[in-house]
Amino acid sequence: MAMLGKRRPPRPASNKSGLARQESAKQAPNAETTSDQVLTIERLAHDGRGVGHLPSGKAVFVDQALPGERVEIATHMTRKRFDEAHIRERLSAAPERVTPPCPHFGHCGGCDLQHMSVPAQREHKREVVRELLFRQGISWQGSLDTLKSDSDAYRRRARLGVNVDREGRVLMGFRAQRSHRLVDIASCCVLVPELQALITPLRDVLGSLKSPRDVGHIELLATPDTCVVIVRQLKEQPQDADRWHAFANEQGVALGMRSGRDSAERDSINRDNPERAKSQAGSPELHWVGAPPVLNDILTLPGCESLTLEFSPGDFLQVNADVNQQMVAQVIQWLAPQKGQQLLDLYAGMGNFSLPMAAAGAKVHAVEGSPAMVARLVANAHRHQLPVNGQQADLNSRESVNALLKEIPADAVILDPPRGGAESVCQALAKISAKPHQRPRIAYVSCDPATLARDAAHLMHGGYRIARVVAADMFVHTAHMETLMLLEPPA
Question: Where is the sequence biased in composition, kind Basic and acidic residues (predicted)?
């Protein structure tokens, strides 16, 4: 960062290629990076890797290592301030270590904490929240409960890559950690049972295709009514259409086909923001085999009838239905909306919080950046005859946010932003020129505790105080989590 904006000095000329220089660097006599070391793991990093120190004091991040373990490591990446390593031999095991439930653990990059007991995973996530708050000067001493599901088979949507290797074998699976290499899988224990049951039939149909190389990936989605399989082909292959149609009929799934190359943005699948789907503009058109299915998410919450939220493929949908319902119920409990109260739901999506709040009695003004999602939200509210107004606005623009807060005074605000957080909104809320008792209560739902801590600091500088914090174990066996926070205005 110190060099940002400055011209870098010219690199000395060399008659070696880039690859040769890399090989020379690997062979350089460096005792700390080329020979094995024995470390004691002191703690976990936020991403779940073990952290130890070399005799020189240099930190080392060790894959799949747990606090208290002594491990012999092999370094695979040397950096200026720290090294990255993996375990060559584990000399002692921590009490929290368990046998990973998935045979693909250590190869597939999807679930990186399966070597740790689930209670230990959840304790680690709570500690990450506390530490990130502390880094922002916030010492949270209150309780920090966890919302969790009873089942580890939680994922109701997934995307499987497809490839054909040099020997002609068809591979289907997820990417390896920090790699574009595809890991061929025979099962996935975190998928909901309905999707797990499709793995073997999908492998069979891929193996029967005339042109499997033209299949880019397969998207899976389980709804309360049906399972959806969307096949993305690089180009249309009529000779394989009958095989896909037979698969759909045999498995009783809704089958969609996209043919053609996606734009770079679509291929990345929201690399910078996996929690929010981008616009479908520029993507190959989706063609359904048979009648297009009606895709619904159903929220069943205490004190109100079940709510049906219709959505389309590509719309944002929380992958863990059980934990999502618990999060919605928690926010309703915190804000306890009364009839006629004005509630502002920002980053509202298709109405995940807006509709339940309106069903509980609040008058909801819902704001979302995507015009397509606003239309979806309004249609969902109209279907249930709920008092929800929808609006499209850029919530990253301070001018837009200030105008919105001035126009729509609210008794309570819900924030459910993408990974980048809601900094502009929180800065504006912290500066609202209203009497303390007229400032809104805030329920913040975050998919990144680091940006939550940053935004909470802005609100606290404006006089708000943290009343409750809850972690939500949305993604079991991974370091990712959701965090809920209730902030109260000054008395």
Answer: 259-278
